[in-house]
Amino acid sequence: MSQKSNGNTGPSDPFKVLRISRREFTVHFRQPTDMAGRYGFDYPRDADRYPIEEVTEPTTGKRTHKALFRGNLSNFKDIYLKNAMYSPFLHKYNYLPAWLAIFPYTTNSVYRGGSSMHKDGVKLDIELQQLIGDTSKLSASKYTKLEFVSSNPSKLTVSPSSMSIKDFISRGHKTTVVDRANKKARKDYILKRAILIKGVKNQPLSKHESITVYAISANSKDLVGELMVHKNSQTYKADLVLVPTKTSTGINKKASESIEWYLKYKSFNQALIRAEIKTEEPFDLNKFDTNTDIESYIKRAKKNSHTPKSASDGIITAYDKYGLGKHEDKSGNILSINQKGHKKTYIFLLDFDITGLNGRAPPDYSTGKFSFGNVVLIFKSGLSNYETLVHEIAHSLGVPHIFEPSFANQYKFYQGFSDKVMDYTWQLGTGSDNPNSRISFARYQWNLMQKDPSIYKL
């Protein structure tokens, strides 16, 4: 059956749009590489689900090509298909949509949780991917153009509304290997910054919305792709306390001044969280060196002889006693700064190092069980490494490593291959460097951070 266009409001019945006829390609939205971190964008990386990378098996040490996602593939698909509108109808093509999260552009009278951060919208790349193993020529396709349709044009716009297939052909294609062992490949046609997605002013999204893509021929309109846009009528706030700590030389003020911009515009904004430095509280331990424990702490700091535990335990104990941050629970009991039950995250910028460690987010065991705490330590060697800073703060907001099993982590990947913030900089088994900048949060991590007890709803 064919489906006539019903304007810009999306298909009234997606089953009528989903034709039985075979498609030659699917269409995918991608983030320009230089815009990573500027807004929330998560998509299924090829290497996560196809055997592209050579990995080391932890138990055997054997090297083999595998997908980077470890575990039940249905869990991986759920990251992208859960709450998707039309992508499940493309399941036979193994289609998974990308997800976009942008702040609503609102006046305070409409919603105080808005921001001008994304008021001009975001431009995305468009990838037309031929089906794996398809060797037909795109120039011979029955389809002549793509059409882009917003599920709610009164709140979410897309421009242009259509583009010619010839635009893709004229730029040629790249060959993407998706199975190195069996030498399977795919042709990808890419248009850079080709599509503008923009929220309408004072119209936050109260539910997830969609930009659907249709391939148009002389007598048909077939669903070939989708971008999911995360609801943004609820946004969030993290109150951060920056504590430049002095044991000897202290912290260069420029190191702390440049941190706030990165935290606000290139990290937690991906999860619709406004990470704001609530206050800066310099902490000079030398003022309290009559305390024998602090005197010992300073001596170890000057010799760079602290262990991770002694560095974190000592600074937390000192700040609980002498710092400005005083917190109580609902019953009036005094809380340590590292205990859950208050709404601040303390970031200690330290002027000493621990060998092999740029930062640490010490856990909270005050209840007798493991819990993510509210304290982050950034050592001297990590002060200019904002990837480490965001990685450790994310731990304090309840996000585990992507390669470690835990109660909060049903999504497990091989270590050291991705651009995800919660990955490591090196690959397990070989020690090879991770070739990517660790700057992206996955969609499931957005949700984890939004639910952390220290996060405010705006």
Automatic annotation (TrEMBL):
Matching SUPFAM superfamilies: Metalloproteases ('zincins'), catalytic domain
InterPro entries xref list: MetalloPept_cat_dom_sf
Name of the protein this chain belongs to: Uncharacterized protein
